[in-house]
Specification:
Number of strands: 0
Structural class: mainly alpha
Strand content: under 5%
Number of domains: 1
Largest sheet: none
């Protein structure tokens, strides 16, 4: 049954589905960010520091450690950003779900109201038909 809310319900449902897709993609971005962070920590653990040797070896190891720390900091920021984006998209999804449910409820109530009106009309029609047939039976008996 189509009501005045039917088109709004379908629009709100599409918006909600888009918000669900945004949450899924934000989850994927967060997963990738945490994996990159874990990989950068593992890369830091793999760097061996020399205990003896030329100064150039020490300097190159230091440069490697510095660059790995910069990479770790970048990945930490990325993971934090992805986490914030996920929270924001979940909040947006929650709001769109509330809107969808609100209009769905209004549509349900309007359908319920129309069904009640139809049942009352049918009952009145049946009463009228019963009254007409009853009157016909009375008039045919008299004649």
């Amino acid at each position: 049954m189509t009501t005045r809310y039917s088109s709004l319900v379908s629009v709100k449902k599409n918006i909600m589905q888009n918000a669900e897709r945004v949450v899924q993609s934000a989850n994927l971005v967060l997963k990738n960010a945490t994996q990159a962070l874990e990989d950068s920590y593992n890369g830091l653990a793999l760097i061996e520091t020399p205990t003896s040797g030329k100064i150039t070896e020490f300097l190159s190891t230091r440069m490697l450690l510095d660059s790995q720390r910069v990479l770790i900091k970048h990945n930490e920021e990325w993971a934090s950003f992805a986490e914030n984006e996920l929270k924001a998209s979940k909040e947006a999804l929650k709001l769109t779900m509330i809107e969808y449910e609100k209009f769905k409820y209004l549509e349900f109530k309007e359908i319920e109201k129309e069904n009640r009106k139809r049942k009352i009309k049918e009952a009145k029609d049946l009463d009228e038909i019963a009254l007409i047939t009853h009157t016909r039976k009375d008039t045919t008996r008299v004649a």
